[in-house]
């Protein structure tokens, strides 16, 4: 009898020592370019990560000078989208449209999404991306409620992007009427501010937004998006914000001198790729290295409740991916397990 009792005790102890089931993490990428075509280096990363899902921007919705609302940057596919990945269509809605939106907008957007998805099978999720504010939330949230009733959207998971300030100030910003959110863990600083700082991702800024439990208290389940991109920002005479410049080689010593970790000063007046650069203008190079990416992931992951979620890298670009060894991306994904 004693032996039987001890066996029962050991069985219960063994059951109590079992580890909780691990989260199921779905590795994914955003594809934000206007044209999709086959690309061997991108395909290799998708296969070896391995990615399970691809979030593809179909088009932007914006306003014209006469306040008409229309789609722009509509996706063109020169090759089929990957058949072995779950495709999530994404629509980017400019915040400015809500001042001019009418009752026809829902139908126009829904029908264009349906047309763009004609050759995509088994769509289970559609994502809406909008940087809404307290003043536009009513119009945007109403749009979401109405488009969910459209036949193409009905019975699908509807997700919405959540910026960090919308997370922190959820009481003012409101929570969109969707099934789940996608927390954008980038573009958190003031890119117009001169000097040496990183507006894409800064650990102190991230911590100020998420605090100790802001993520865990949010009322929607959250997927996570992390930055894999870089940009250069031009400041006239090092002070006045001029905007993002593209395809400018700041490492060209004939044009620039490196004055700090991020800052490059123009040596003489010149025109480079159509940009008129003046002597003493400054370009700030912003980039997120793999170490910072993993540190940010740890801050985020420790607040996430147990559950399955996607971890999405923004964005799929063969040039950018050269900066991130595959094992670094895999280790970043593992942080969320």
Question: Spans with pLDDT under 50 lasting ≥5 residues?
Answer: none
What is the CATH C-level name of the largest domain? Answer: Alpha Beta
Helix-strand topology string: HEEHEEEEHEHEHHEHHEEEEEEEEHEHH
Q: How many distinct domains?
A: 2
DSSP strand count: 18
CATH architecture verdict of the largest domain: Alpha-Beta Barrel
**What is the residue-mean pLDDT, rounded to a whole number?**
94
Radius of gyration computed on alpha carbons:
23 Å
CATH superfamily (homologous) name of the largest domain: Glycosidases
Give the CA-based shape.
globular
Order of strands, main sheet, comes to 1-3-6-7-8-9-10-18
From the helix content, strand content and strand pairing, which structural class follows?
alpha/beta
Share of residues in strands: 25-35%
Number of helices: 11
The assembly state of the depicted protein chains is single chain
Q: What percentage of residues falls in helices of 4 or more residues?
A: 25-40%
Distance between the termini: 43 Å
CATH topology of the largest domain: TIM Barrel
Fill in the keyword field for this structure:
alpha/beta; TIM Barrel; 2 domains; 11 helices; 18 strands; Lipoprotein
